[in-house]
Amino acid sequence: MEFSSDSVSIDMETISLGGKEYLVKTRLGTVSVVVFGDQDKPALVTYPDLALNHISCFQGLFFSPEASSLLLHNFCIYHISPPGHELGAAPIVSDDFSPSVDDLADQIVEVLNFFGLGAVMCMGVTAGAYILTLFAVMSNFLYFYGMCGMAKELLLKRYFSKEVRGSVLVPESDIVEACRRLLDERQSINVCRFLDAMNE
Question: Coiled coil where (predicted)?
């Protein structure tokens, strides 16, 4: 019996999508940022999921000619790699400092400052989305957007377990509903100032 395959195996680590890599020094170490496009265009910041980098995480999007041309036509893309996830990364020594998710979110601020970026659009996958969400909350997200639905959901997730928050099949508990109403009454600027005080 003869074996035939129409598939091709590709080592994603060896494919280059172009772009320029910058090694940004932060208070917690160096962060690799690969930049694609014209830096005068609005910024789109990406952050990959656990054990992935910008190529392996976003290949489906950026290998699609339609999406790629649309994104590169309208944005300059800044792919931030978590420590030890950049292409060709050496093993992290176990004695080295292990950053928390808050530390990783703080690194994003340092990266944006390095490039002189103000307002940015963010796109992350799973763990990367979580890090970018923390960054957004800590970076006056509430100041610019008020106590929007996403901010409320983030706070409710912080306050209550999954079981108490409910699901599609289980309704929210009374305490979660009461807290949701309370959050509706909060002034976003006041919440933002409290967050600023905690982050200083």
Answer: none
- Is the model's pTM score more than 0.90? no
pLDDT, tens digit (0-9, with 9 covering 90-100), for 132-142: 988 887 765 55
Band of pLDDT at residue 4, cut at 50, 70 and 90: very low
Q: Do residue 167 and residue 123 come from a single domain?
A: no
Q: What is the DSSP string of the chain?
A: -----------GGG-----EEEEEEETTEEEEEEEES-TTSPEEEEEPPTT--HHHHHHHHHTSHHHHHHHHHH-EEEEEPPTT-STTPPPPPTTS----HHHHHHHHHHHHHHHT--SEEEEE-THHHHHHHHHHHHTTHHHHH-S-HHHHHHHHHHHS-HHHH--SSSPPPHHHHHHHHHHHHS-HHHHHHHHHHHH-
